[in-house]
Amino acid sequence: MERHVERLTREQIAAGHQVSLAFRHGACVPGGAARIPLRPSAASRVMATVSDRLAFATQAAQALRTVPGGPRGVDLVHLHGDHVEALVLGPACWRTGVPLFVTVHATLSERHRRLARHAFRYAAGFVALGGATAADLMARGVEARRILVMSSGLDLSRMPPPVPASAREPGLIVSVGTLNPMKGHALLITAFHRLSRDRPGLRLVIAGDGPERDRLALLAAAGPGVTLSGALPQEEVYDLVGRAQLFVLASRRLAGKGEGVPTAALEALALGTPVIVSSHATLDPVVTNPMAYRVFASGSAAGLMAAVAKTLDHPSARERMGALGRQAAEALDWPRVARRVEDWYETCLR
Q1: Are the C-beta atoms of residues 79 and 73 closer than 8 Å to each other?
Q2: Residues ≥6 apart with Cβ < 8 Å to 325
Q3: 296-305: long-range pairs with CB below 8 Å, 24+
Q4: What is the pLDDT of residues 197-224, one digit of tens each?
């Protein structure tokens, strides 16, 4: 989310807009942007006992009254979050007459549906990262015409050119993502061990860190070939994915969390690496060509093994997937994505 906000902000500033950022965690303030100071209050302290996100929204709502020029000097508020923050920030924007836009980065929790319906009434428009996220919004009463479905953008100018198939490491499979239950790394490691029994020389590298590291390390130690690299700088991630024969993301939906459109998979497409994702991490409708990547049923080790084996065994299919993936990624360059967001502001405000 922080990377998304940073790149969107850079593009909006380049287009001549004034952008001010309010946040409690992270350190992203692109050049030309201002940071809105958030100050604790009695109300935010009460909210903090319930949720850090509610406390943030309370402080952001209070700060809206203190920005230079007051609310009258603000054209719109763009929230990156969901109904939790909108529950507080929505009424505040409504009272001050400032339109609220909400970008929802992942599928929504199955809890608090009625609360979400109430909170989302205050937004002028929504950006849903992925079709599943848009469906969740509509299930909570948001009209389809108020939702723009898209993905995060890609820094194509900063990405290295695709590596030729002949220069890729034979049998290298890569996954990138936080080490948490939602990403499905445990399933991937289990499927890899089963697959590698009959395919010596396969190698799986998972880039990322998180709360499941110890558990995944134990699973990885059950057989050869698995490396947990930890979090890597972006350039090293690009190099690793670019050298791989296959990129896999085995995400699954949990009761309180699910994937939007995984940027790591989109970056793999841009690098020309064949991509396999679970049905809960599908790239639809952002990548419209179903031949550009492969999907297996989320949670199915057998389905994942079959998809990996089929892709590894057919070099011509990998080459075709790589070409189609690069073609699909061309439409996701950040300047294009930012323009879509700006056009969406205009559409909703009209």
Answers
A1: no
A2: 268, 269, 270, 272, 273, 274, 275, 287, 292, 293
A3: 298/184, 298/250, 298/251, 298/252, 298/253, 299/184, 299/187, 299/252, 301/187, 301/190, 301/191, 301/194, 304/187, 304/188, 304/191, 304/248, 304/250, 304/276, 304/278, 305/191, 305/194, 305/195
A4: 999 899 999 999 999 999 999 999 999 9
Provide the pLDDT confidence category of residue 110 given band limits of 50, 70 and 90.
confident
Q: 68 preceded by cis ω (within 30°)?
A: no
Torsion, CA 181, CA 3, CA 147, CA 333, rounded to 10: -120
Q: Which residues share a beta bridge with 23?
A: none
Q: Is the separation of the CB atoms in 246 and 272 below 8 Å?
A: no
Residue 80: strand pairing partners: 103
User: Whole-prediction pTM value?
Assistant: 0.88
For residue 148, count CB atoms less than 10 angstroms from its CB and return exposed for 0-12, middle for 13-18, buried for 19 or more: buried
Helical segments of the chain, H only = 2-14, 42-48, 52-63, 83-96, 113-120, 131-139, 185-196, 213-220, 234-243, 263-270, 301-312, 315-329, 334-349
Tokens of 191: 């499927």
Q: What is the DSSP string of 317-346?
A: HHHHHHHHHHHHHGGGBHHHHHHHHHHHHH
Residue 280 is given by DSSP the state G
Residue with tokens 């309180």: 256
Query: 258: closest CA among 241, 275, 278?
Result: 278
Give Cα separations from 13 to 63, 74, 118, 335 (angstroms): 21, 15, 33, 11
